[in-house]
From TrEMBL:
<feature type="transmembrane region" description="Helical">
    <location>
        <begin position="70"/>
        <end position="90"/>
    </location>
</feature>
<dbReference type="InterPro" id="IPR003752">
    <property type="entry name" value="DiS_bond_form_DsbB/BdbC"/>
</dbReference>
<feature type="transmembrane region" description="Helical">
    <location>
        <begin position="144"/>
        <end position="162"/>
    </location>
</feature>
<dbReference type="InterPro" id="IPR023380">
    <property type="entry name" value="DsbB-like_sf"/>
</dbReference>
<dbReference type="GO" id="GO:0006457">
    <property type="term" value="P:protein folding"/>
</dbReference>
<dbReference type="GO" id="GO:0015035">
    <property type="term" value="F:protein-disulfide reductase activity"/>
</dbReference>
<protein>
    <submittedName>
        <fullName>Disulfide bond formation protein DsbB</fullName>
    </submittedName>
</protein>
<keyword id="KW-0472">Membrane</keyword>
<dbReference type="InterPro" id="IPR024199">
    <property type="entry name" value="Uncharacterised_DsbB"/>
</dbReference>
<keyword id="KW-1133">Transmembrane helix</keyword>
<feature type="transmembrane region" description="Helical">
    <location>
        <begin position="42"/>
        <end position="63"/>
    </location>
</feature>
<dbReference type="Pfam" id="PF02600">
    <property type="entry name" value="DsbB"/>
</dbReference>
<keyword id="KW-0812">Transmembrane</keyword>
<dbReference type="GO" id="GO:0016020">
    <property type="term" value="C:membrane"/>
</dbReference>
Amino acid sequence: MAMTLSPDRAVPLAIFAVCAAALAGAYTLEYGFGVLPCILCLYQRVPYAVAGGLAALGLLPGLSPATRRVIVVLCGLTFLANMGLAVYHVGVEQKLWAGTAQCTAPAGGAPQSLAELQAALENPPQLARCDEVGWSLFGISLPGYNIAFSLILGAASLAAAARSDVWRRR
């Protein structure tokens, strides 16, 4: 017996899959390739977790198509908010405005003694600076790609929510 997925469940499933893939990609870059995130990079992961969690709720049995539609709208708005955060991050990278206090690595310069050097080696910084591009492809940083990705996801989610044929009760 073949299982079919109704359109009102397919949209949250697609959102969940995209969010899981985005988070997997971020963690792969960090832990697999050693690309340290900055605090703004970490903040930009949160909307993917939120939208993924909302989308997972949208897969629960017994929800009406109207409820799933609201969940998809919330996911779309979450993606657009993430786009705003990514725009802010790119502005910090390009020195258009200052980042938060957490965006800069602790000042102090080079170690002044062997004890300071040993302490620095034993406790390396776990976050990169927000105002430095940690990784780029074709001259575009990860937050730059996140702007486009979040805009596309937000627009696609809201467009799917606007389609009445997807949300008819079956």
